[in-house]
Write a structure and sequence with these properties.
CATH architecture: Up-down Bundle
Helix content: over 70%
Mean pLDDT: 86
Largest sheet: none
Number of strands: 0
Number of domains: 1
Radius of gyration: 19 Å
Shape: globular
Strand content: under 5%
CATH superfamily: NCX, central ion-binding region
Number of helices: 13
CATH topology: A middle domain of Talin 1
CATH class: Mainly Alpha
């Protein structure tokens, strides 16, 4: 019954398009419908990723989910850059890293089996990459804590930082994917029934494209929703945009964890955060030079602390390579604390 309801609720996406382009509905209505529409799309991406993971193994499956799921995040960020909303861009990217590490991973640990064996080496390696990214973010961020954080000189300082992050990501991802492929081949595991790999990848691509369009509608309706709710742009971007923009990974990881495939679910959560920090964020910074104005990666102290702290806490939780539900509760609780901090911090 639940699966039939999810399949049927995919009609919400075309309904949202009709409300936006045919009936010219108000922004608050569009925000609500677009947010709800992302739920079944997230489920579909999770479903497709699970089937793809049966052919590739959990490591590559997690990478696929992160890659397809983060495409809307990049699109949302570029729309915001083009509309001269740099604080919204940085807050949403930071919020994406933090929500994947604390909220998504936490809920996955709660929903999945207790004391399941995880790929400790892969997860800790990716958390190490997040910490490297946070340290490199300090180079343009610290000067931005004094004076105008959007000044052109800091955008120039951001360029080499972005290039180094992309090179590190490409190198480490290539090494990691080779390791996962070898490990999967050595295990001798074969897909049992389910979708073929081309069908799974096709569903992932189609769901991601629709998610991108829905996300664009969501971004353009956020201002009206924020005004109606009386919330700061920083909180909206760091919490609401980050969660909704990453609904694919959020829903996918949780659905997969509930089915007992916790190694894949944890790979999705952690690899997604690493990909946002080392690929999406620097890529947006570089692409911003094309759409203008150029985006300096000048994160606020609270943003740096949130990303670095989340990575350290998760590394501590995963240090033994075993899942524990109480640790999932701890991560979700810490995310609630972070969200309250973002609410108190307000706009820059």
């Amino acid at each position: 019954m639940g699966r039939k309801l999810l399949w049927g609720s995919l009609v919400l996406a075309p309904l949202t398009f009709l409300l936006r382009y045919t009936f010219d509905a108000g922004d608050v209505v569009l925000f609500v419908f677009s947010a709800i529409s992302l739920i079944p799309l997230a489920w579909l991406i999770g479903e497709a990723t699970e089937h793809a993971g049966e052919h590739t193994g959990p490591g590559i499956g997690g990478f696929l989910n992160a890659s397809f799921g983060n495409a809307p995040e990049m699109i949302i960020a570029l729309f915001a850059v083009n509309e001269a909303l740099p604080n919204v861009v940085r807050a949403s990217l930071m919020g994406s890293v933090v929500s994947n590490l604390l909220l998504v991973l936490g809920v996955a640990l709660i929903a999945g089996p207790n004391d399941a064996r995880l790929d400790r080496l892969s997860l800790l390696s990716q958390l190490g990459l997040v910490m490297v990214a946070v340290l490199l973010f300090l180079i343009p961020s610290v000067p931005g804590w004094h004076g105008d954080p959007e000044r052109h000189s800091l955008a120039l300082v951001t360029l080499p930082v972005a290039i180094v992050l992309l090179l590190v990501y490409v190198g480490e991802t290539t090494r990691s994917l080779r390791r996962h492929k070898r490990k999967h081949e050595e295990s001798g595991a074969e897909a049992e029934g389910g979708w073929t790999l081309p069908v799974a990848l096709g569903a992932l691509a189609a769901a991601t494209v629709v998610t991108a369009f829905i996300s664009e509608i969501l971004v353009h309706s956020l201002h009206a929703f924020a005004s109606a709710a009386g919330l700061s742009e920083f909180f909206i971007a760091a919490v609401i945009v980050a969660i909704v923009g990453n609904a694919a990974e959020h829903g996918g990881a949780i659905v997969i964890a509930r089915r007992g495939k916790l190694p894949l679910a944890t790979e999705i959560a952690v690899s997604s955060s690493a990909q946002v920090a080392l690929f999406v964020t620097p890529a947006v910074a570089l692409l911003s030079w094309l759409v203008k104005p150029a985006l300096p990666l000048t994160f606020r102290p609270i943003e740096i602390a949130a990303m670095g702290g989340a990575a350290l806490v998760v590394a501590f939780v995963l240090r033994e390579g075993r899942s524990k539900r109480w640790e999932g509760v701890l991560l979700v609780g810490l995310y609630a604390v972070a969200a309250v901090s973002f609410l108190i911090a307000g706009d820059r």
